[in-house]
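Check my protein:
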Amino acid sequence: MEYTKHLAQFATQIQYADLPSQVIARAAELALHTWGVQLAGSTLPWGKAAYRYVMNEGTGTKSTVLNYGLKTSTVNAAFANGTFGHGFEMDDNHAATGVKGGCVVVPAALAVGEQKFSSGRDFLLAMVAAYEVMIRIGLSVHPALYNGPFHPNGTCGPFGSAVAAARLMRFDEATMLQAISIAAGHSAGLKEAPITGRGHLKRLYGGMAASSGVRSALLASEGLTGPVTMLEGEHGFCRAIGGPDPNLAELTRALGSDWQIMKVHYKVYAQDGFIQPMTEALERMVKRHGFGAGDIADIQAGTNRVAHTRVIGVIREPNDLTSAQFSANFSLALFLVKGGAGFHEYTDENLVDPEVVALSRKIHTYVDDEIEAEYQRTRPRGARITVRLNSGQTYTDCVPDLRAMTADDVDQKFRRLATVAVSEEKCERLIKTVRGLEEVRDVSTLVPLLSR
C-alpha cells in the first residue's frame, strides 16, 4: 500500500464538516492549553535563550514570538514558540506513543496562520490533520521507538508541524506528500538528553521539530521533492525507526473515524509522564490520611520496567531542573515537602532544599509485576505507591493510568501558567476566545492577547 500517499491524501482532502464536534472542541482546548504552557515557558532561562537566538537572527514581518511580540520568520517563530511549549514538562501527551503534539503543531499553525490570516476553522482543521498524521506515524513505529534511542517528539514531531503548515498553505496532494517526505529527513532527537537529565537540549526538542516541519513545508512549496515512499520504503522512516517489521497498518487504520486527538491527555504536574500517576497517588493518600513529609519512613513506587530502568528510576540525585523533572524519588519528595509539583515548585532553590533531598533518599522505584503486565498490553501510565510511616502504619494506592482533566481543570491550569507572562484580563479573554476558536475570522487577531 502507498501509505505516504494515503496520508497526504487524507491531510489534503479532509474538510471541517468531516470533524465531529468533540474533535473540534478538543483541538481548540489543545491550542488553549499549549498557549498557556508556552507563555510560562517563555520566561524560563532556556526559553529566554531561544528568544535571544531568534532575535539575533534578525526580525521580520511574518510571525510573532509569544510573550515578547517579536516579529520574525515563520521558521524562527515556530522554533521559539515550540521551545517554550516543550520547555518544562507541562505539555500534552499521547500516552501510547509519547508524542507531544501541542509544542510542534500549534507553533507551526500559528506561525503560518498569522501570516496567511487563516480563520479559526482553518486553524483547527490543520491541527486535527496534523495530530492524526503525526500520531499514526508514531503508532506505526512502536514499541521500537519507545524502546530505542530516539525521542518521540524529535522523530515524529516534524510530520505534525509540516502537515499543519502545509494545510494552512493550501497544498495540493502532491505537494503535501513532498512536505511529509521532507519532514522525515528532519527526524532526530536522542533520549540521552532526558535519560541523563543533563543540559538544556531536551528543552529544545519541541522547537526543533516545530521549525523543521515548517521548513519542510516551505521547501516543498518551492518545488523541492523527496521519495514518495518515505514512510513505507525499505529504507524509509518506519523501518529506520520501527525496525524491520513496523506496524504499517497503523498508518491508516480507521483513519478519519478513530480520532487519535481524542486520546491526548494533559499533564497535571510538571514532570515526566511516568511520574504523574505516582504523584497523583500520593496526593490522594495525603488528602485521605493526613500525613506529612516528616511522618514518612520510606516510600516504594511501583512502575513498569521501561520507566524503572530507563527513565524515572535512573536519576537519584538530580543536579539541575531537567534531571529533577525526570527523577521519580526527587519529584515525589518535592510534592510532599512543598505541597505541589508544578511550575512554581520546580526551582533551583528547591533542588537543593535539605528537607526535599533528605526525603528523596527514602523513596525508591521498583518494577511492579501487575503494572508491567498491563503496560505491555495497552501502554497505560500506571503506578502503585506504598507509604510506610514512622509509626509503622502503611498505606497503598494504585493509579491505573493518567488522570483525565476536565475543561475547567484545563482553564485553571491555563490561568496558572499564562498569568506568569500576561495580564489576568488577557488571560480571561483568551479562554473565552479560544474556546470558541471556530468563530474567529482571523487567527492573527489572537496575537496581541498572546504578547505582553
In short: The beta strands are 63-64, 71-72, 92-94, 264-266, 296-303, 363-367, 383-389, 394-399.
